[in-house]
Design a protein that fits this description.
Layout lengths: L3 H54 L20 E7 L4 E6 L1 H8 L14 E11 L8 E14 L10 E9 L4 E4 L9 H4 L16
Antiparallel strand pairs: 1-2, 2-3, 3-4, 4-5, 5-6
């Protein structure tokens, strides 16, 4: 005959195993949820930090009152061209209005860019690539955003274009308005291309 005492002990052991497995599953599920929440929190903080950095830079104004916020979104504007010197790699981008004007034939057709056109020259210090199979310079540290905006009423003395320079310091991850960048700071150089509405770079074929 079965021993009631033994059966009772065996039943308790089975129930304890079930409770242990259930507890382990709960702990595992809680751990996964906690890790997911921690990851989301870190990503959220990083996103807020990045947004804060953008917000800070878009509060800047040049000595002549040109706001960096006028160029909001320049990071995603279309590339017009590129250039380089011995010390600087440059990528030139423009806002949609100016890209549209370029594609319509301006300035080659003798017409000026319309008011609202904006162009930005992004500058990096170069470095030699350590990964490429050939000798090539690649961007290293970002250093400056040189901006131009067309507003004939605001800037009548400089061909309708306003100029400003916003410097970037990598160590502190901050932008500052260059104190020497008056609204006509680039006009002296750009007068040599007055016939092209003061713009050096054509929209390059691609």
């Amino acid at each position: 005959m079965p021993d009631p005492m033994k059966e009772s002990v065996a039943q308790e052991q089975r129930e304890q195993k079930i409770e242990t497995r259930t507890a382990v599953k709960r702990i595992a599920a809680f751990t996964i949820v906690a890790i997911a929440m921690a990851v989301l929190a870190v990503l959220g903080v990083a996103a807020l930090f990045a947004q804060g950095q953008d917000k800070d830079k878009y509060l800047l104004k040049s000595p002549s009152g040109i706001a960096f916020s006028d160029f909001r979104g320049y990071e995603d504007w279309s590339v017009v061209s590129s250039a380089r010197t011995d010390e600087v790699l440059k990528v030139i981008v423009a806002n949609p209005e100016m890209i549209k004007a370029y594609k319509s034939g301006i300035p080659g057709n003798g017409q000026p860019f319309p008011d609202g056109s904006m162009i930005v020259k992004l500058q990096w210090k170069p470095k030699k690539s350590t990964e490429a199979q050939f000798v090539v310079d690649v961007p290293d540290v970002f250093s400056q955003a040189f901006v131009m905006e067309k507003d004939s009423k605001r800037f009548p003395k400089s061909g309708g274009w306003g100029y400003a320079v916003f410097n970037y310091e990598a160590a502190s991850n901050t932008f500052t308005a260059d104190p020497k960048s008056l609204s006509d700071c680039g006009n002296a150089c750009h007068t040599v291309v007055k016939a092209k509405d003061y713009i050096f770079h054509p929209y390059q074929k691609r």
